[in-house]
Each structure stands twice: as structure tokens, then as C-alpha cells.
Amino acid sequence: MNHPEPDDFILLQAVGRGDERAFAQLYDRFSGPVFGLTLRILRSRAEAEEILQESFWQVWKHADRFQPALGSPFTWVVTIARRKAIDRLRSNSRHLQRIQEAAVGSAAVDRTEPTGLDNAEAGDTVTAVQQAFAKLRPEERCAIELAFFDGLTHTEIATALGVPEGTVKARIRRGMLKLQRPLAHLHAAGGNRPTSRT
């Protein structure tokens, strides 16, 4: 008889108690999508792997501090990884390259698709996100991607695109509103939605 796998909250609670088996299960569940995100941000497999390991090391050390009221375990882990990846990006010269790419328009079309998504559930998530993004207006999609994946601030995006900062904020806000409904089921199931730095 097959026993159901423990849910993410139970696993994370066990990790907080130092349960190595629970940590391994959590890693197996989340590492594919998290690696895909960090690779998409950094565009370097070696750096993405480093950030992946650093992120899960932080999860191991601080799992007991997780607060369910702030979101799902998946959202928490993704937030840790994204913050680390953006910090790494900002610490090297490639951040300036992203701004220059945006200024000439290549950032809107030169998109590296997430990889490392090695399970069906993750694949379904990626497909749903891609379909939702495809329905956005190009300027909305570009602004959200520059903010979420490339780590640019609203001011940097405005400068790169040659538009007022208020226009950037409006595009991101409109795009996010359009994404909320089609991606709501992912958020409820433990997914995450793009947020931007101000």
C-alpha cells in the first residue's frame, strides 16, 4: 500500500527539527524549479548551481524560522534563491549589460527559458506561466521580466527604455493584474508570482 507523501509544510517543519531525510525530500521537490529560476537570472550554470546550494543551505539553517502566514514553503525557498541570485547579478558587471540590452530592446526578446525542470508538475507550472505571459502586451511583459528576472529597479528600467518611471510602474501593475487570475491556482498550490524591486 502506498502512503501519501507529506506536504511541504510538514517537510519544512521536519527540516527545522534537523531531519535530513525531510530535507532531501524538500530538495528533490524544489531544486528543479529553483535552479531554473536562478539560471534564468544569472545565465550561468556554474553560478546558478552555487546559488542553488547557498539557498538550500540557508533553508537547512533557518527552516525553524519559517512563518506559514507569510506564504507557502515553495514561495519562501524561491524568494531566498531569487534574492541571492539578484544580489550576485548586481555584484558583477553583467547587471550593467542587462540595462544596456534593455536600452537597445534586446532584453525583451533575448529570453533564456528556465531549465532544470525535471518533473511533470514543474513542467506544467512553466507552461502555465509562459501561456499567461504570452497574453500580456509586449511592453508589460518586458517591464515585468526586467524587474523580476533581471533585477532592475523601476528607475533603471525607465532609464533603459526611455520612458517615465510612472509608466514603468503602470505597466508592471497592469501586467501583474492580468497575471493574477490565470496564475492564482499556482500560487495556491505553492507557486510564486513575479515581484519587482523598487
List keywords for this structure.
Rna Polymerase Sigma Factor, Chain: A, single chain, Arc Repressor Mutant, subunit A, disordered C terminus, 198 residues, mainly alpha
Number of helices: 9
Helicity range:
55-70%
Q: Judging by the overall fold, what is the CATH architecture of the largest domain? A: Orthogonal Bundle
Structural class: mainly alpha
Looking at CATH, which topology of the largest domain would you report? Arc Repressor Mutant, subunit A
Using only CA atoms, what is the Rg? 17 Å
Percent strand:
under 5%
Shape descriptor: globular
Main β-sheet: number of strands, strand sense, barrel status? none
Q: Could you state the CATH homologous superfamily of the largest domain? A: Winged helix-like DNA-binding domain superfamily/Winged helix DNA-binding domain
Q: How far is it from the N-terminal to the C-terminal residue, by CA?
A: 51 Å
Count of DSSP E strands? 0
List segments where confidence is low: pLDDT < 50 over at least 5 consecutive residues.
106-123, 187-198
Provide the number of structural domains: 2
CATH top level of the largest domain?
Answer: Mainly Alpha
User: H/E order of the elements?
Assistant: HHHHHHHHH
Mean pLDDT, rounded to whole units? 77
